[in-house]
Amino acid sequence: MRAFPVDLPSGTRYWTVLDDEFRVVPVADQWLRFLRFGRSRAELTTRSYAGGAAFYFRWCQATGREWAEAARDMGLFMVWLRYTPSRRDDEPGPVVCGPGMRPARGERRVNGVLAAVRGLLSYAVSVDAAPRSVLGQIYELADSRDLPEEAKGEDTGLYYRLRARHRLQEPQADVDRASDEELVAMFLACRSARDRLIVLLHARVGLRRGQVAGLRRSDCHLLPDSRHLGCDYEGAHVHVQRRSNMNRAWSKSKKEWIQPLDFLVVQGFDQYLDERYAILGEGGSDFPAGGADAAGGDGRAAGAAGEAVAEGAPAHGPARVRQQCRGRGRVVGRGADAPGPVPSVIRRAVPDPEPRPAA
């Protein structure tokens, strides 16, 4: 069992589940198509859910259980998830972790898989592919008394809700954010203006990988007054919006919003445009994260936007920050806070642009 992408003639992609003979699992495919097109979920959402459903079908196949009736043993599935590592098709059977060994998957990953399985089984019940008793095996009836005060809102009455039966307690951990020194080292290790711009968009603006990869040149208003472009927002800023892009980049935020830019990011854009014009001239991709070294195309994918800087400086950038560039939704996460003072070393690395001759 595995997750597999499906590209439609319209250019839209969603993920489905294939069995060992590369046949589509019908109920999983129907559910994932419903999420993608009936509920307008993102492609990455179907990818995550397809992976979780594949784990469930794989466990049912390995233990000889029928998937529609295996929900009663969900606790055993959780143990299997925690201590059975994944393997490739050409590798022998996995060795199950013993006492004292680190679990193969953490609490957050297991809870994500369980959420996907609950969605799959709930949909199966709604289309009569699974008995209705399954809902009682994965949910329990709870009331509002165990909710925190913030979740209750202004309604002080007692109401009932469905609560997931199976869930691991996730440990509280501080967000591991890159320090100013690590950001400066990563910035100085960049080998192109494009890579420096990507670092600035993450660190100073606070954009996610998908938002950086999906940013278009028409979204960047860098002048003090953009009313001639039909935008009444004052000052330099970027428009962040969710839409379908050729490079499959996707903004996690459902609402369109405007993020102001400071002088450092504007200068980074200026250097990037000079570099881009010197290499591509008037051509090239419409995506700034597509890079000035690509003679056209549709821009970088969301995952490649974070890897651009990490792979550009393998010997100089801090290893922890390079790993964040590859694996985290927000490379540094500092953009959520108010940007602090600009380190002087970055001021020197991004000098004031030279005046351009008048057209």
- Count of helices? 13
Overall body shape: elongated
Question: Whole-number average pLDDT?
Answer: 75
Q: How many strands appear in the DSSP assignment? A: 7
How big a fraction of the residues is strand? 5-15%
- The N- to C-terminal Cα distance equals 60 Å
Radius of gyration: 24 Å
Low-confidence stretches: 291-297, 312-316, 324-339, 343-349, 355-359
> What is the domain total for the residues?
2
Bin the helical content.
Answer: 40-55%
Highest CATH level, the class of the largest domain: Mainly Alpha
State the order of secondary-structure elements, H for helix, E for strand: EEHHHHHEHEHHHEEEHHHH
Class computed from helices, strands and strand pairing:
mainly alpha
CATH architecture of the largest domain: Orthogonal Bundle
Across the major sheet, the strand order is: 5-6-7
- In the CATH hierarchy, the third-tier topology of the largest domain is known as hpI Integrase, Chain A
Q: Describe the biggest sheet?
A: 3 strands, antiparallel
